[in-house]
Every structure is written in C-alpha cells, then in structure tokens.
Amino acid sequence: MEGKTIKNDEISLKELLEKVKLWYNYLLSKWRIIILAGVVGIVLGLTWSFIKEPIYTATLTFALEDEKGAGGGLGSALGLASSFGIDVGGGGGGVFSGSNLTELFKSRAMVEQTLLTPVTVNGKVISLAEMYIQKNSWRDKWNKNPKLSVIQFLPNVNRKDFTRAHDSILGVIYQNLSTNSLFIAQKDKKVSIITMDVSSNDELFSFYFCKALASEVGKFYIDTKSKKSRANMSILGRQVDSVRNELNSAIAGVARANDNTFNLNPALNVRRTPSVRRQVDVQANTAILTELIKQSELAKVTLRKETPLIQVIDKPILPLPKNRLGKFKGIVLGGGLASFLMILALIIRRFLKIIAE
Prior knowledge:
By secondary structure, the protein is of the alpha+beta class. Helix content is 64%, strand content 10%.
C-alpha cells in the first residue's frame, strides 16, 4: 500500500511539461489584464519619478591618528620619565579607536548637539534642528497645538533648559537621521580611513549637517583624548610658577642676608647662618624648577602629538551628488513590478480554484 502511494505521487517529465504548458496557456489567456496592469504600473512609476524629490549625499572622509605611541626619542623620554614616577600625560586610550569612533558619530548626544549648530539660511541664522523642521513642514501641524507652537530650537541653546517636548522632538529627528540619513563605514579594516555619508532631500541640510557633525565629534574626541595631558600641563604650570616664586624669594633673601653681614667680623660666623640657609634654598629650588620645566616641556610635546586626532581628507563640496529616480527607471520598475504582481495574483487565484474543486 505504501509503495503504491509513492508511485502515485511520482510525476514524469512529460506530465511536468504539460502542466507548465497549461499554466502558460492560462496566463496567455489573461494577457489583456497583465498588459493593463503593466500600463497602470508604468503610469504610476512615471508619476513617482516626477513627484519624488532627489536625494543629496554629502560625503566626508577622515583618517585616524596612529595609536602606537610617541616613538623614537620622545617615546624613550616618556618612558624614562615614567620610570621615575613622573606622569606627563599622553595617550587617552583606545576607547574611540576604529569601530568605537564610528559609533561615536552615530551617538544621540553627538547628533543632538550637532542639531543645535547655527547655520545661515536665506540670510537668517537658525539651528540645524529648525532647518530640518521647516523642511519637513512640521510647524504647519504644530501651529494647531498651543503647546507645540511655542517650541523653538535656538542655535547653541543650553541643552539642560529643554523640556520633555523638546527632548521628544529631538529624539524623533535623531531616529530619522540615524536610520535613514547617516551612514558611517570603515571600508577596509587595514586602512584607518572612515567615510561618513549624510543623505537627505535637502542639499543644504546634508552639506551643513555633515560638516557640523564632523566638527562636533572632532572637538569631543580631542578634548577627551587630551584631557589627561591638559590636566597635567595645568598642574605642572602651577608648580613651576610656585617654585619660581620661591626661588625668587630665596634669591632676594640671600641678597638681604649678605647686606646684613657686610664687613662682618670673621669671628662672628653665626651671623652668616641666614645667608647660608638661603643659598641652600636657592640651590634646591633651582634643581626642582629645572626638573619641573623638563616635565612641562615633555607634557607640551605630548599634547601637541595628540592634537588634532582626526585628520579630514575630503569635505563635501556644493553642488552635492544627487540620486534621482529617472523617468526610464520609473517606467521599467513600475511596469515590471505591476505586471509581476498581477501574474502572481492570477497564479494564486487559479491555484486556490483548483484546490477548491
């Protein structure tokens, strides 16, 4: 019984060709409907090519600084200083290297801070957030709501002063940009060159936002990476000034002590003690000041090495490249897609009819 069932389920090549021929003849009999669907698709595709706005893409490429340390004589000097317990800064760690840096570009904090950057549009200074809102005609809907009609995104405003509504709107803009407009990629892991693309239907917004985001991330990156070095430089600077004041005071003390012992009887050596003590202070402060100046110079070299940390290679230039759905492409896509969907619908309908019988 089981063998008979298997035999009945088998189909020969001849039967397969006959079934294909039946389906072909069936679709051929519906050629008018298929052609009509194709014509409708062509009209829709052509209409869409006229309606859809072009997409403008601003591209910026930058290279990361090598993270392998100072190298050469500077590396030896820093190592020698560290062996004596001297911290002159240097190296903010690899927390922002490689893929971590690409995620920094896409972070909400960086994108929202960039949206508050001032730009000049039609002779008026507005923020990028306001530019995005105006382009998408959001205020036409907000004017009907008293709570939303008074919301403004002024350039360089303090982020801490924002209300819940401000945060919500910025969150929506961030989601739209991070999902549909902002693309960061490192094309080759062997090459530390990263490409950032900003795409939108507003050429100026793509251009301004791309440059502003790179500038904002660059500032944050530099401040974070060089924070330790700057702190050390500040501390060393205060120490140098303090020791120099002490040295000047000791030098003046030696001069006063010498004045007090001028033509002093050689037998009265006790009276010379203040002068000797001040001379010791001068020698000690001189040695300390010399070492602090060396440390300060090493810290300056380290800070210069770490700034800037992002080297921009190519910046976006107006006019930006635009991607637009051409008329021919709209006709082909619209007609082809509509015809395919109609054929698929006819096949499903025929198949269901056969099952029902």
